[in-house]
Request: fold
Amino acid sequence: MTDPTSAVPSLTTKTLEVLSAFSSSHPRLALSDVSRRSGLPLTTVHRIVTDLASWGALERAADGRYELGLRLWEIASLAPRGLPLREVALPIMEDLYEATHENVQLAVRDHLDVVYLERLAGRNAVRVLTRVGGRFALHATGVGLVLLAHAPLGVQEEALSGALRHWTPRTVTDPAQLRTIMAEVRRTDVAVSDRQVTLDAISVACPIRGADDTVVAALSVVFDADGPITPQAVTPAVRAASRTISRLLGSPSARRQPHDVRRRSGRLGDV
Reply:
């Protein structure tokens, strides 16, 4: 017999629902907005929000609405797949940015989503839809294709069996075609997303491997499809940068590979 109390959301679940009401498009909310977006009664929301604000997870703005507090950032920065990886990768990402002056992105996989840990972008770099801390589907972006290609088979099948969104007419959503692309990504260690998310951007991505040689993250450069950079030109730089990060993380295969890219100022291959 089913326990009738099992269908009642716990206080923890309700608290998470309150926090989930905030998003990049709704970063500041009134109590009534939180209630509406979370589906919780206003009295419950008021009690939870008061506790979260006292702890520092929420902050009250001058207009009386609430926004996420720095205490959450402090806690989130302790995630082992977040800050340590970012700290290792950031100097290499900065070198890659100086070589390209385009968007440089670092991402990991969280089940069926890409989560972006860091992004460097110049003032004149092509517009992207991603943001630090944001999520995106696996099948369309360069980093997503890398992470999906190296995901466990069960994750791949789950991702390809669901509804795959189109962002542009060039977005690949056919499972058979995606399997072919993933096989090529595993063979070459490079993924190219050509105007699949926006019609003016191309992404070139490579895997980052950890101490056990499994793929733990992906690194990409996103550039203007109509600009002077081509995937062929930028691939050596992205590959060299991802290999350097992998080597710093202790990847045995990255240590075995010869470092054949020399520093030559102003060249895309310099990282």
Notes: The chain has ten helices and nine strands. Residues 9 and 49 are 17 Å apart (CA to CA). The first strand starts at residue 28 and ends at 29. The chain has two domains: 4-75, 83-256.
